[in-house]
Design a protein that fits this description.
Layout lengths: L1 H27 L17 E5 L1 E2 L4 E4 L2 E5 L2 E6 L2 E8 L6 E7 L4 E3 L3 E2 L25 E2 L12 E3 L30 H20 L2 H6 L1 E7 L4 E3 H14 L2 E14 L5 E14 L4 E16 L2 E18 L1
């Protein structure tokens, strides 16, 4: 019994070492190894570098805090991102960045406007903005900048005050008391966008459909969705109805909505869908309401609603 006890003590000591050593290693490892993935990180390889004057603004990417300025948000896949910069005592700045796959961009420093500064006079609709949009320069000089990548200000640009920084782009979002009446040219643009919207649906062209959409869209009765969710929704519809015909488009009107810089298009058309694989068919009439919001010089879809009068559904 005594020999057995002498034998068991070394065994217990060995087991204790096995347990204690990993714990000590974990306690002494750098804390950076346990840091969580930064907010806004994605599976892609793209980057957006942001700076403000003054620095220290919080970066929100698609509504998610992603560090402070100056800073780089990386791991981004190709797509359109909504960026908001916030700093206590200053007005928030917003912009939309359309990023190509694997590209890295550094935007010019953005001069934030103090809350104490007087509100700028809103640029009349149809006139040229006071500050031109600057295309982002690449973080890595060897990386080419494709012409398709743009930084788009979300609200009316504000003239930048004199400062030693080289030509920064300023963005502000002053509230408007009431929706301004769009010019005839703007309404014609929206009518053309409605036609492109219906064509993308009929053709099953999901990429063309997404180009017309803002980063977030209140889609029919399915709630607010981002581009990836919209892509899956449209793909399911395409698989269910491979043949989608839209005819007799009529009663297309454009009017002001209940928000600034938003125009509401109403359109009626006949639809006829079928699935050769299942033999199912359906047709009817649809009444669509599509809200477009002005983002810089572009009009993008932010909300869709539909009332469908289904005439018949049958199988071959």
């Amino acid at each position: 019994m005594h020999e057995a006890m002498n034998f068991s003590r070394p065994v217990r000591r060995s087991l204790l070492r096995v347990l204690v050593i990993p714990i000590l290693l974990l306690m002494t490892m750098p804390a950076a190894l346990f840091a969580a993935t930064p907010p806004g990180a994605r599976s892609g390889s793209g980057k957006i570098a942001l700076a403000t004057q003054p620095p220290g603004a919080t970066i929100f990417l698609d509504g998610q805090a992603s560090g402070k300025t100056p800073g780089v948000v990386d791991g981004l896949a190709a797509g359109r991102y909504f960026v908001r910069l916030e700093l206590d005592g200053y007005r928030s700045a917003e912009l939309v960045v359309e990023l190509s796959s694997g590209q890295s961009y550094q935007l010019p420093a953005i001069a934030l406007i103090s809350n104490a500064a007087p509100r700028p006079v809103e640029t009349p609709r149809g006139s040229s903005p006071a500050v031109a949009v600057t295309k982002p320069a690449p973080v890595v000089p060897a990386t080419p900048v494709p012409a398709s990548v743009r930084a788009i200000p979300v609200a009316t640009p504000v003239p930048m005050p004199a400062a030693p920084a080289p030509a920064p782009v300023t963005v502000a979002s002053p509230p408007a008391p009431a929706p301004a009446a769009a010019s005839g040219d703007e309404d014609e643009k929206i009518r053309a966008l409605v036609a492109a919207h219906l064509k993308a649906i009929a053709d099953g062209d999901i990429a063309a459909y997404l180009k017309l959409c803002a980063p977030k869209v209140d889609l029919y009765d399915e709630g607010v969705q981002g581009h990836e969710t919209i892509r899956k929704t449209r793909q399911k519809l395409k698989e269910r109805w491979p043949v989608y015909e839209i005819t007799n488009v009529r009663d297309l009107t454009v009017r002001a909505a209940d928000q600034p810089d938003v125009r509401r298009a109403a359109v009626t058309y006949d639809w006829n869908v079928s699935n050769p694989n299942t033999g199912k068919k359906a047709n009817g009439t649809a009444n669509d309401l599509v809200d477009f919001k002005q983002v810089g010089s572009e009009w993008l879809i932010v909300k869709t609603r539909q009332n469908v009068d289904r005439k018949q559904s049958r199988s071959q």
